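Sharing a chain and its predicted structure for anyone who wants a worked example. Both blocks are below, sequence first, tokens second.
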Amino acid sequence: MNRAFKAFLLISCLALAACVLYAGFWPVPPEQPPALVNSAAPAKTLCPPRSPAAPGSPQVLTVRPGESIQAAVDAAHPGGVVLVMPGTYHQQVTITTEHISLLGLGQPGQRPVLDGENQLDNGILGCADHLSVENFEIRNYQDNGVIAENVDGVTLRRLVTEHTGDYGLFPVRSQHILIEDCTSNGAADTGIYVGQSRDIVVLDSEAYGNVSGFEIENSTNAVVQNNYSHGNTAGLLMFVLPDLTVKETSGNRIAGNRLTGNNLANFADQEDIVSNIPAGTGLLVVGSANNEITRNVVEDNRSLGIGLLDLRPFYPQRQDFDIVTAPQGNWIHDNQVAGNGAAPAASARKTGLPGVDLLTDGSGWHNSWSETAARRFPPLLPGPSWSDFTRRLYYRLIALLKSL
């Protein structure tokens, strides 16, 4: 071996070592959107301006078939209860008084029904704090089954929504939300959705026949637990989207849910972001941070089981974002995943990503996975024991491979 070759070999080794040291030790620059200030246009609201409630003692009002639920709600004082007898009511109800409980009477199959006859926009519009709606069937509305806007304290319990337009249950820009023992099907966007909100609990509910069964969007401190999502296009979505008032989806816990057989063809409006979700998606996290996903059963979704992706490919023509688009700090562990990715939808195949149980595009350098007995892509996923050096090195290697 001549001296020139030895010198070349030594220089090459030193260069490789320098690259490895750089890749592992040099900090990954944090993603900094050009405008984390509020770049969103003022949110449109369906709610009329709030006015002080008329003074009076709380009372119980009863509505019978043929009578107006709206009239009873308008007559109720704060703390009042409006009881609705079984029957069918072709009405839209708007609640603007605080501390109102709207309760349907009767057992499942004999409860009061709000039927919009595909003519009315929303079944129930909640516009006041400390609102409770329980024990109704709500069907055939054009926009939403139940929507609550800018509400502090909303409880939605034992509700069934069916073919209510874009959303079944739709709390937005609200806080202290409880959704419990509800069922939703036939929504062209999401059956049970919470957006731009915080302090959320979604429990013991079921979604089927929707584009997305459940969705948490631009929201924080949500617990989504013990729910059943099946027969949708996607079982559960957790997104952060641009141009909204709230700029993050973080600090959420998705635990103990069953997300199985979500293989319904996507029927969302092409202008909606969910129209990009391939049929056969179990649980998809896009551009969200510091969330925990654990103890879920995710099975028999034909495109993918659990996915962790950057938001940017969903907006291929866009360059600048007012949010951090890469997922970061997510902890995905101890889920039961099997039988996913067996027959990916055409839209999933077009991306070049394979059908698997566990999927990441490599964006975000500090996510952690701890799963066993699952097909995955890439074959090696960062675990909780990985050092920051190893994480940065692996992240930059994936980025290099993606660029080739």
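Comments welcome. Residues 3-25 form the longest helix (23 residues).
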